[in-house]
Specification:
With 199 residues, this protein is mainly α. It has one domain. The chain has seven helices and no strands.
Amino acid sequence: MARRRQAFGEGFALLAECLLTGVWVALAALPVVTLPAALAAGARHVAAYADGDSRGWSGFWTDFRTAWRQSWRTGLAVIGAGLLLALNLAVLAQEGVPGRPGFALATFLVAGLAVTVLLRAAAAWAPGERWRALLAAALDQTRTDASGTGILLGGVAVLAASTWALWLLAVPMGGCLVGAAVAVGRRRLDREQEAERDA
């Protein structure tokens, strides 16, 4: 019973830290171009907290500044992709567009997968890592790790629905999504290590 209470307390504390991380990520991502760096710093913070190394705001800010110096091109690409998505949705909003429901579904699916790739890359970031390599590895993992991709896509869908219902929910839900990306990454690594031991 004591162990169960301790596990509950640890899980609740991790959830609270994810919610707080959502606030930090939202503040750091306000210029939009800094979104990849904010996600990377948030993921590093959640991972460190889960390992018992809580570095607080100062650690997050240090990681954010380091990630920003390496990720501004990725941030520009995120802005470009967002503008393309907005343009596509604006076209689909017009009456008389043939196949509009199918194209809208495909647009949202592609956008969700793109966010999933970005989350995986951010969760794997460490100082000195190249974002091009991180994104390439994240794209491969998105294809090969179907269950992890499903988890993250579900999280993106919940984030979108929560934001649509009440935009302020995007802040805490964003932190939970960062935590999910860290968990998915560690889950994949555990499976790979198990496979190597069994080989």
